Structure formats: structure tokens, C-alpha cells
């Protein structure tokens, strides 16, 4: 069967008598089962790659480095340039630098360029998380909360390799197309990557196109190409190497044309991670999967319960990590493994050589 051939809808959920009541975000993954698990340390790289990593780290650790406040500043001699804040140094972790190097196929200059552009984009978008930042107003939970009143995007559970599950449910659409929908996707992506446990830096995206006939839901139509491309550009350019797999199910015949139109805009690495019309349960254990997809989580979205709980948990997790980052010296290139853990001593100091 061809890639874009019409396939059957996902099988109906089976009735179970072992359901687990759930209406909140879960931040603690099950004990490691997969080959990667969680809590595992850094992977080994070659001596040449270690040298590249060190040069990129030194570039962003340079106190003389300054960047503009928005993406329109290119060529503007009067644009305000500022050094990295402590929160931005926190974001430029060892794993972050490695993600950009891998995404650029270990082309050092390209990695520096792309990472710099993302730092400026995060300033412009208000994603620095710095309460003292002089950048754009933060992308806040309050500004996008209305977009999730029907639970069209969720972070819930983990796959077999302890990667957070990010559900996108097009058939629960409750708002008309607008840039706020892109902002909502960005906010939820930040929540998903924040939920990555120690030793894990990728997420699994589950896309369900089924129409849900409930109050507040206005459409199951595909988003406008402009909105879809904007979301895709954000994920590919500013969250490189974050996607482990994207599984799409319940794609009606009239949305296959939309999928075909969007497919050419996927970079080769993203295309390899797309899976069409395979059941979620093939990749996720039942106790981590929504019962609607033959899992055990008896999840019912209640906006006034799930949303504030998710926001509070993500904020608390981020603050805790930042505090540990500061305690360990607050330098560019500290490891997410260290500031996501509970240990007292650094496992990966700044000068740690990943080639040995």
C-alpha cells in the first residue's frame, strides 16, 4: 500500500475493567524499560566531534557575545544588542548544543548560526522564561489558555523509551484560525520538552484527526496551510532533534490532500519519523496510553483541572532545574542530566570529554 493510500481508521477502544482514573498531567515516567530508559548519561562522540562541541560552547560562553532582541534586527545598525541572560545560558545546555550540531550534520558554522537564530527567536517570542527580561512579553499560559478549552493538545504519559507523549487532536478544534494557534502549539511544545525526564531529550507526537462532537468544538477541518507551515517551521527550526516519532491516525479522505501538500515541507529527518495510521498502542504501554486508544488511562479533559495543573508542574520543574543550574555554576554547556537530577556533585563538568 502506498504512503498516501487510504487506510482504515484506528480500531475502536476495547472495554477494560482495569482503567486508571486520570485528569492531570503526569511528570514521572514509569521505571525505565526501553533501551534508552531514563537516567542514562551522555552518549559517546568522536574526538573530532568533541572539538566541534567545545568550539561551539566557547562561542556561546563568550561574555562578549551579544544578540539582537528580535529577528527583524538584521542589517539594522541601531538595533539593541544584549548578552545572554542567565536563563538563556541555562537553555544553552550541553545537550542543546549537541542537538544543533546533530541537526546540522556536524557542520559547526551552521550549528552556531541556527542556535543563534533560535536564541533571538525565543527573545522575540517571549520564551526566555526570565522574569527580569526586557524582551517581548512572555508567551504565557493565560494568553493561550482559551485555545485548549476542549483539550485539543495534551501532554500525557510516556512511550516505551520514557519520552513524553504530546497529543494533537485536530478534531477538537474550538477556535478560528489565527496566530494564537501557533503560539498555543509553541507553548505546549515547551511543556512537552520540559516534561522530558533526566537522560531523555525527545518527545513523541500523537496526531488524531477524528472529529469529536462535543460542546465547544467547531471544526475538524485541516488548519490553513499558512498556520500549518508556521507550526512546522517552528518545530523544525527551533526544536531540532526533539522529535522522536510522529504518529498520525484517523486521517479522513478529505484530509489526505492536506497531508500530501504538507509532506514536501518536511525535512528528510522529519519525514523518516512520520508514521501513518498505525495504532498508538504499538508504541506505548497501556498504563501510559489514553483509554480512547486502547490504553488504561481513563482520561477525561477538564480544562479547569488539567490546564492549571500542567502550568504549575511545568513552571515548578523549570524553576527547580534553573536553581540546580545556578548552584552548579550557571555556565553555558552544563548538562541537562545534572540539573534534572537529584545528585549533589556534577557528573558532567564543563570540561568533560565525551570522546573518552
Automatic annotation (TrEMBL):
SUPFAM superfamilies: CRAL/TRIO domain (SSF52087), CRAL/TRIO N-terminal domain (SSF46938). InterPro entries: CRAL-TRIO_dom, CRAL-TRIO_dom_sf, CRAL/TRIO_N_dom, CRAL/TRIO_N_dom_sf, PI_Transfer_CRAL-TRIO. GO terms for biological process: Golgi to plasma membrane protein transport; negative regulation of phosphatidylglycerol biosynthetic process; phosphatidylserine metabolic process; phospholipid biosynthetic process; positive regulation of phosphatidylcholine biosynthetic process; response to xenobiotic stimulus; sterol biosynthetic process. GO terms for molecular function: phosphatidylinositol transfer activity; sterol binding. It comes from the Eukaryota. GO terms for cellular component: cell periphery; cytosol; endosome membrane. Gene3D superfamilies: CRAL-TRIO lipid binding domain (3.40.525.10). Residues 143-301 form the CRAL-TRIO domain. This is CRAL-TRIO domain-containing protein. It comes from Huiozyma naganishii (strain ATCC MYA-139 / BCRC 22969 / CBS 8797 / KCTC 17520 / NBRC 10181 / NCYC 3082 / Yp74L-3).
Amino acid at each position: 500500500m502506498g504512503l498516501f493510500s487510504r487506510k482504515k481508521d484506528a480500531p475502536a477502544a476495547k472495554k477494560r475493567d482495569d482503567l486508571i482514573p486520570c485528569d492531570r498531567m503526569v511528570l514521572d515516567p514509569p521505571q525505565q524499560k526501553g533501551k534508552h530508559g531514563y537516567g542514562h548519561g551522555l552518549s559517546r562522540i568522536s574526538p573530532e566531534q568533541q572539538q566541534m562541541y567545545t568550539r561551539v560552547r566557547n562561542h556561546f560562553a563568550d561574555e562578549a557575545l551579544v544578540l539582537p532582541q528580535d529577528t527583524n534586527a538584521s542589517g539594522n545598525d541601531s538595533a539593541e544588542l544584549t548578552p545572554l541572560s542567565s536563563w538563556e545560558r541555562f537553555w544553552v545546555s550541553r545537550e542543546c548544543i549537541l542537538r544543533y550540531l546533530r541537526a546540522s550534520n556536524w557542520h559547526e558554522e551552521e550549528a552556531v548560526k541556527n542556535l543563534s537564530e533560535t536564541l533571538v527567536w525565543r527573545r522575540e517570542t517571549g520564551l526566555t522564561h526570565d522574569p527580569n527580561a526586557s524582551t517581548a512579553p512572555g508567551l504565557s499560559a493565560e494568553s493561550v489558555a482559551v485555545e485548549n478549552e476542549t483539550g485539543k493538545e495534551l501532554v500525557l504519559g510516556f512511550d516505551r523509551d520514557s519520552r513524553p507523549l504530546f497529543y494533537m487532536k485536530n478534531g477538537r478544534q474550538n477556535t478560528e484560525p489565527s496566530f494564537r494557534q501557533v503560539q498555543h502549539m509553541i507553548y505546549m511544545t515547551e511543556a512537552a520538552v520540559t516534561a522530558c525526564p533526566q537522560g531523555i531529550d525527545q518527545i513523541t507526537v500523537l496526531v488524531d484527526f477524528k472529529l469529536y462532537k462535543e460542546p465547544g468544538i467547531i471544526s475538524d477541518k485541516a488548519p490553513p496551510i499558512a498556520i500549518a507551515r508556521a507550526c512546522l517551521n517552528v518545530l523544525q527550526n527551533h526544536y531540532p532533534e526533539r522529535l522522536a516519532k510522529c504518529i498520525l491516525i484517523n486521517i479522513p479522505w478529505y484530509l489526505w490532500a492536506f497531508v500530501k501538500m504538507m509532506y514536501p515541507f518536511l525535512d528528510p529527518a522529519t519525514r523518516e519519523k512520520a508514521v501513518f495510521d498505525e495504532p498508538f498502542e504499538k508504541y506505548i504501554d497501556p498504563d501510559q496510553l489514553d483509554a480512547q486508544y486502547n490504553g488504561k488511562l481513563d482520561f477525561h479533559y477538564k480544562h479547569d483541572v488539567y490546564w492549571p495543573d500542567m502550568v504549575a508542574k511545568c513552571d515548578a520543574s523549570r524553576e527547580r532545574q534553573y536553581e540546580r543550574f545556578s548552584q552548579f555554576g550557571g555556565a553555558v554547556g552544563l548538562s541537562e542530566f545534572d540539573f534534572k537530577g537529584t545528585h549533589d556533585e556534577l557528573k558532567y563538568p564543563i570540561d568533560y570529554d565525551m570522546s573518552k
